[in-house]
Amino acid sequence: QVQLVESGGGLVQPGGSLRLSCAASGSLFRLYVMGWHRQAPGKQRELVAQITGAGTTNYAGSVKGRFTISRDNAKNTVYLQMNSLRPEDTAVYYCTAQGAAWGQGTQVTVSS
């Protein structure tokens, strides 16, 4: 079972930036489809971005052009660079591996 540990959340003003990181255990990281999901209070969890082992990416329409997912297979780490943040981006962000393993989540709050 792969273990995932997120970091990098926090409080940021609207228009600001944050970078989330997710460190994964195990030797098969390079094969995994990695993703970031988020869940805002009172809302369903939603997919934010995904990246395949080869680097193909996919984004939710609400974050396209503002967020960038990337990975470093040598470090077993996936990143989510979030720019031009909006209050509606406030949520707990979760890292996923193959849609099956989940991290503990990291809070992102966008507020002035």
Strand content: over 45%
| E-strand count | 11
SSE order, one letter for each helix or strand: EEEEEEEEEEE
First-last Cα distance: 39 Å
Using the CA coordinates, give the radius of gyration. 13 Å
Q: Could you say which overall geometry the principal axes of the C-alpha atoms support?
A: globular
Give a quick account of the main beta sheet: strands, pairing sense, barrel closure.
7 strands, mixed
Helical run tally: 0
What integer is the average pLDDT? 96
Secondary structure class reads mainly beta
Which blocks of ≥5 consecutive residues have pLDDT under 50? none
Determine the fraction of residues in helical runs and give it as a percent range.
under 10%
